[in-house]
Write a structure and sequence with these properties.
By secondary structure, the protein is mainly alpha-helical. The chain has one domain (about 1-180). The protein has 4 helices and no strands. α2 (about 80-120) packs antiparallel against α3 and α3 (about 125-150) packs antiparallel against α4 (about 160-180).
Length: about 190
């Protein structure tokens, strides 16, 4: 009788162990599925950002060519210098603006690359990561305003507009570096 009771308890315990293993496997599969989905979404975002970067590079090259054309026109004729100067200024504004978009896009790409790494981080690291990234939104808005200010920049204000953009971009890059530092390095 006693042996039968022990055998019954062992069978029940084994059965529970199998159930626990199945539940653990199901939870593990669910976690793996969520991680794969997050990785896929992050890759899609990276691909989209890369397309934007490629387009901005092409636009910047076109703008530089236009700027070079405008500069050569200015040098060719004194009468045309006044008109070409306005065109050169417009082209320079556009070139600086496109270069700024490219630099901002690179920073956003670097920030997007941190997403998949944060998925694998511990809860504490994720919290620190999210806290470190909090200023990024405001910094991106400031950079967008800086880029818009190129539209009205004159020759006299180019230096200050560019300086403000570079300052705000440096702040965003520092925020990204700080957020990256909160993640494990694997």
């Amino acid at each position: 009788m006693r042996a039968f009771l022990i055998l019954s308890l062992l069978l029940v315990a084994c059965g529970n162990e199998e159930e626990v293993k199945k539940k653990v496997a199901a939870v593990q599969q669910q976690c793996d599925d969520q991680a794969a989905k997050a990785k896929q979404e992050a890759q899609q975002k990276l691909d989209d950002v890369q397309k934007q970067v490629d387009q901005l590079k092409a636009d910047a090259a076109d703008a530089k060519t236009k700027l070079d054309d405008c500069v050569s026109k200015v040098q060719s004729s004194t009468d045309a210098q006044g008109k070409s100067a306005d065109a050169a200024l417009a082209a320079a504004r556009q070139a600086f603006k496109e270069e700024g978009h490219l630099e901002l896009s690179d920073a956003n790409k670097a920030m997007a690359e941190l997403g998949p790494k944060s998925v694998k981080a511990t809860a504490k690291a994720k919290a620190a990561f999210q806290k470190a990234l909090q200023p990024a939104s405001a910094q991106q808005k400031a950079l967008a305003a800086d880029l818009a200010s190129w539209d009205t920049a004159s020759l006299d204000t180019f230096k200050s507009v560019k300086g403000k953009f570079e300052h705000d971009l440096a702040l965003l890059k520092n925020t990204i570096r700080a957020a990256k530092a909160t993640l494990p390095t694997s």
